Amino acid sequence: MSEACEALVSASWFNIASFVVVGVNAVALGLETYPAMVARAGAALDWVEYACLAYFVLELLVRFGAHFTAPAGFFRDRWNVFDLVIVTAPLLPGVRENVTVLRLLRLARLARAFRLFPSLRVIFVGIRRSLPGLGSFLLVTALLLYGYAVLGWMLFGTAYPERYGTVGQAMLTLFLLLSLDGITDTLQAGRRVTGWAVLYYVSYMVAACYLLTNLLVGLVLTALQEAHQDERAAASQGRRPEIADDRQEPSVREQLAQLHTIISDLERRMPDRPEVADTRTTVCSGSCGQPVAGRGTSG
Fold first, then answer.
1. What predicted TM-score, i.e. pTM, was given to this entire model?
2. What DSSP letter does each residue of 158-212 carry, written as one string?
3. Are residues 205 and 159 part of one domain?
4. pLDDT 10s digits, 137-148
């Protein structure tokens, strides 16, 4: 049973089927946001939800069956624990009546797509690994925005109180300018107030919009590269030995067949050697006791 479940879990079509069910569940959840669709096909959407939930429970049982001989291995996988929580939680009495929590749990099923495909899992692991560096990046960004917000309050606080009246409003204005949306109009409005507006906004664009953005992209790309390397190492440790074993099996069989042929040849030859030895002994016993005719005549 454990081997059959393990073979089923490792099959490619099994992950594809799970991804399709996750997609169907997501579409059904989206259709429920349209009142007209709920009024027209509300019962059908409920049956789709029940069918998806039944498949998720069955999938979870199959994955548990793959670890039936060692159940602890099932709970060591964080994805299995995540699936167990989001699948069994809607079945609990307290959660089942709460529509908001139930929809959030159904929405969380979309995250199961990350465990089904290695490429998506690499992205998820890369984002998770970039979080420590992202914290430092956010701190630098906050300090930069705060510094420029104080300068903006000093330069434009009186002329544009709705944008730079306080440090908080100035930080919000500068944060919205990170996308460079409306930067031309903002620069022209600032030039009407003071000549330092050009230096202020140009330096802000270089420091915040270009340097910080490239720094963020570098952090994410480095984390994705490390996650991709780890995924390759895990694949080489977990899959390549199996491929090597499959390639070695024919050669071992061929060697055993050759060895069997050699042993068979030796067994066929072994009975012939004693007969040859006996023949030599008989000839020797008959001829060694009599003198050779040539030698006796000469003597």
1. 0.51
2. TT-HHHHSSHHHHHHHHHHGGGTTTHHHHHHHHHTT-TTHHHHHHHHIIIIIIII
3. yes
4. 888 889 999 999
